[in-house]
Amino acid sequence: MADTDAHPITVAIERRIDPTRTAEATSWMQAGTDLATAFPGFLGSGWVRAGEDSDLWYMLYRFRDITTLEQWDTSTQRQWWLDSGRPFAREERVERRTGIEGWFDAPFGSTTDAGTQPVQQPVPSAPPRWKQAVTIWVGFFPTNLLASWLLGFVPGFTEVPLVLRVLATTLMLTPVMTYAVLPWVTRLLRPWLQRPPRPRKASS
């Protein structure tokens, strides 16, 4: 259990939003993000709508580990935020993922039974690890290249010991990758990441 606790946790939530209160729901979603940002261990978040005419909204947020996630989950701030959205937002499903795979999950779907209770559907599997590696590289290479070029203009930076230069660079690039680059790249490459593998041709 201790090993699981040490991994970042990504939470994906599916909600149904009253279509007549879209503007109100947009502000509500942003308010939730702003509240979570103030909590220790918060690593980033985002939300999207399934479509212009759909009432399905998907929210994704990420914390450093299970401990910091539960501090947010059980907080009075989050409870107040959830209560304020109950008139127009209904939670359909929640899924937790550990590791980097959480950023690559496609929005999941759900259906309802005759009693309007959500019926959980299988979550689409994360892309193959080689695709995840390519996606991370696509984001990291130009980001690192740009940072290295800009830091070359800092007087005396090239004279700093290599270990300290790498330390400074990674400290700067990690939040940039987490908050901006990786979410953007995964959205850009989503069709390729979620494309099912081609069936192998039977050998004659």
Notes on the protein architecture:
- With about 200 residues, the protein is α+β, with helices and mostly antiparallel strands.
- It is built from 7 helices and 6 strands, in the order H-E-H-E-E-H-H-E-E-E-H-H-H.
- It has helices at about 1-5, 20-35, 65-75, 75-85, 130-150, 160-190, 190-195, and strands at about 10-15, 40-50, 55-65, 90-100, 110, 120.
- A 4-stranded antiparallel β-sheet has the order 2-3-1-4. Strands 5-6 form a two-stranded antiparallel sheet.
- Helix 5 (about 130-150) crosses helix 6.
- The model is unreliable at about 105-125 (pLDDT under 50).
User: Which geometry do the CA atoms define?
Assistant: globular
Whole-number radius of gyration? 20 Å
- The count of helical stretches stands at 7
Helical content stands at 40-55%
Oligomer: single chain
Residues in β-strands, percent? 15-25%
The tally of strands reads 6
Order of helices and strands: HEHEEHHEEEHHH
Structural class: alpha+beta
**What are the low-pLDDT stretches, counting only 5+ consecutive residues below 50?**
106-123
Major sheet: arrangement of strands:
2-3-1-4
Q: Please, what is the average pLDDT? A: 78
- Termini separation: 49 Å
Largest sheet: 4 strands, antiparallel
